[in-house]
Each structure stands twice: as C-alpha cells, then as structure tokens.
C-alpha cells in the first residue's frame, strides 16, 4: 500500500486525468454513498449511472450525472452503455450465499480488465430505507460490542467507499486484488491517519 500521506496528492493527480466512471447499483446504500463521495471529491469528468431505472435527483450536485437504463437480463444488448469509461464500480448488493463462493470472481475475470478489485465486506453498517430485520438486528448487536471485535465482523458503508476510492487512486502492479473486511477497514481509514 502506498504511504497514506500521499493520498491527497494521489487524488489530485487522478482528478487531473479527466477520467470517466460508471456506477452499477447507485440506488443502493453503497452506490448512493459512493456517488455522493465521487461528486464531492470531483474525481471524474464524466459520471454515468447504469441501472434498471432512472434515479430522480433534486440536488444541484447531481445535474451533470448521466443515466443509462438497461435490462440486466439482456446486458449484451446494452454494451454501448459501458463503453467510453475508464473506471467502473459495481455496487450491486448480494449476500455471500447468493453470490456463490468464487462465482463472482470467475465472472469478473472473464472480462479481462487491466485491473480490478473485489471488496468482501462483512455486515454493512448503515441506516437503510428499506426494512431488513436481520441486518437491523446485526447492526444493533455489533454496535453494542467492543470496536476491536465488531471491526472483524462489520464495517460502515462510508469506510467501504473510502477504501474503494483510496484503492482506485493508489498505484498497483496487481491485476486483481481481493480485499477482505480487515483490509477494507485499513484502506478505508488510511486517510484518517494524517488528520490531526
């Protein structure tokens, strides 16, 4: 990992490259936080959301966000929506049992990206708009435990997003990286080390 003191410089250097990004799953909790952070940091010259439906935004910050509506059952017919982007984020949520061990990684590898990172967070800590009783119970449980223990089994979405963006701007010679919950915590908190 690069020296955390260089993160602001790495972000500025990245910003100057005028790259474009697409986000799959921007209507979900992680995608919403990621989009908000990308716009706040002004990291990309073009931001495109790809999803099943358009998302209505009222805030001025979202006025230049492009949106492409696709049918995920027929993605081959929508390849143009993905073209012309330098970076892509997939925030389509799933449980580990639904994803199948190794299946996601195998599918992503077929695309032959220059570089990609798979994030495997534990229980995501957030305040969802939709009701997920099991997640609510898990959040309550983890919030009552000592940080050192809960950190191994949960992670705030904001930490995941910071880890995603820090990983993006940090140089790497690895084609594929797989980040578990501990690595996500470390990378997501990296910029906090420099703050007084």
TrEMBL record:
One annotated GO biological process: import into nucleus
Molecular function, one GO term: catalytic activity
GO cellular component, one term: cytoplasm
Record domain NAD(P)-binding: where: 25-100
One Pfam family it belongs to: NAD_binding_10
Domain of life: Eukaryota
Subunit organization: Monomer. Forms homodimers during oxidative stress. Interacts (via N-terminus) with elongation factor EEF1A1 (via middle-region); the interaction is direct and competes with EEF1A1 binding to guanyl-nucleotide exchange factor EEF1B2, thereby inhibiting GDP for GTP exchange and reactivation of EEF1A1. Interacts with nuclear transport receptors XPO4, IPO5/RANBP5, IPO7, IPO9 and KPNB1 as well as GCN1L1/GCN1 and LRPPRC probably through their HEAT repeats. Binds NCOA5/CIA.
Protein name: Protein HTATIP2
Organism encoding this protein: Sarcophilus harrisii
Gene that this polypeptide is encoded by: HTATIP2
């Amino acid at each position: 990992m690069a020296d955390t003191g260089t993160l602001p410089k790495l972000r500025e250097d990245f910003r100057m490259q005028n790259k474009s990004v697409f986000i799959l799953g921007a209507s979900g909790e992680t995608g919403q936080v990621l989009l908000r952070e990308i716009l706040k940091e002004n990291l990309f010259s073009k931001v495109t959301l790809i999803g099943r439906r358009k998302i209505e935004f009222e805030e001025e910050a979202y006025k230049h966000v492009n949106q492409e509506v696709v049918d995920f059952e027929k993605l081959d017919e929508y390849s143009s929506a993905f073209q012309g982007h330098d970076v892509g984020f997939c925030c389509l949520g799933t449980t580990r049992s639904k994803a199948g061990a190794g299946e996601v990684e195998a599918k992503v590898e077929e695309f032959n990206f220059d570089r990609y990172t798979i994030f495997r967070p534990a229980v995501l800590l957030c305040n969802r708009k939709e009701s997920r009783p099991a997640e609510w119970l898990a959040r309550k449980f983890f919030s009552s435990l000592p940080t050192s223990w809960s950190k191994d089994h949960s992670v705030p979405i904001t930490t995941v997003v910071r880890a995603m963006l820090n990983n993006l701007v940090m140089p790497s010679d690895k084609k594929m990286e797989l980040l578990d919950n501990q690595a996500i915590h470390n990378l997501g908190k990296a910029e906090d080390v420099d703050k007084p």
